[in-house]
Amino acid sequence: MKLIVTDDYEALSLAGAEIMAEVMAAKSDAAVLVATGDTPMGIYRELAARRAQGRLDASRLRIFQLDEYVGVPPQDERSLYGWMARSFVHPLGTPEASVVRLPWSANGLEASCRAYDQAVQSAGGFDLAVLGLGPNGHLGFNEPPCDAHAPTRAIDLTEASIESNASYWGGTHRVPHRAVTAGMAQLMAAHEILLVVSGAHKRDILRLTVSGPITPDVPSSFLQQAANVIVLADRAAWPS
Ligand code: F6R
Fold first, then answer.
1. What residues are labeled active site?
2. CATH topology assigned to domain 2-233
3. Ligand 1 center–CA 51 separation, angstroms
């Protein structure tokens, strides 16, 4: 695990954008998994600015969706696909046809999850997985307790995740209780993982992630066993 601690969120966003831009420059058709949530938004804004300045070309990128709420269609403002499209796919100019999506409908969900894992495998795994850190150590919606080999699948959200997602949509009553997530197995097999963590409220779970026992009760602790992990945190989040 490589640890990078920045002074503040702005510096974190610049550092994260640099790491992502390097991956894209080295491989224009890189397979990139991108989280939504608040933390990576500064990174995506910086990448979009670079693209607008002609400093970055993401037109050949292959983008993979990390998670989705079950029963929430793309036109719903809470769609995580929609959030990813608005914050990353469109501003970077990657065709939507180059996005490997997760299902949102309960119909045929299992088959769609298998197709997703097949697509990840055909891509040779993720070149880069950009992840945020859940308050309970979830990665994507790999909720605790979680098996390190868990595939892409539907899960019930924990209370902690419903609480943390409430701030996105204006209250817990607006947070769906079921979701689909890229599997822990697919995340762990990424060639490179960038975990972005910001804010003092993440300090305890970040400590458990980087130096606590490796346990299904803290899914992010499995990252201690993954190949190329960069933990990019701001000073507020860093457990010093
Ligand atoms: C979002 C996702 C979640 C978030 C995590 C942290 O697609 O998969 O795992 O990354 O809950 O969220 P923020 O960044 O809002 O603190």
1. 67, 136, 138, 143
2. Rossmann fold (3.40.50)
3. 24
Q: Tell me the three-class secondary structure of 29-73, residue by residue.
A: CCEEEECCCCCCHHHHHHHHHHHHCCCCCCCCCEEEECEEECCCC
Output the average pLDDT for the chain: 98
Q: How far is the CA of 165 from the centre of ligand 1 (A)?
A: 8
Question: CA–CA separation, 139 vs 131, rounded Å?
Answer: 7
For residue 145, cis peptide bond before it (omega within 30 degrees of 0): yes
pTM exceeds 0.85: yes
Domain extents for the chain? 2-233
69's tokens: 């709420």
The 10 Å Cβ neighbour count of residue 163 is 14
Residue 239 — very low, low, confident or very high, per pLDDT cuts 50/70/90? Answer: confident
Pocket of ligand 1 (CB under 6 A): 35-39, 66-67, 80, 132-134, 138-141, 164
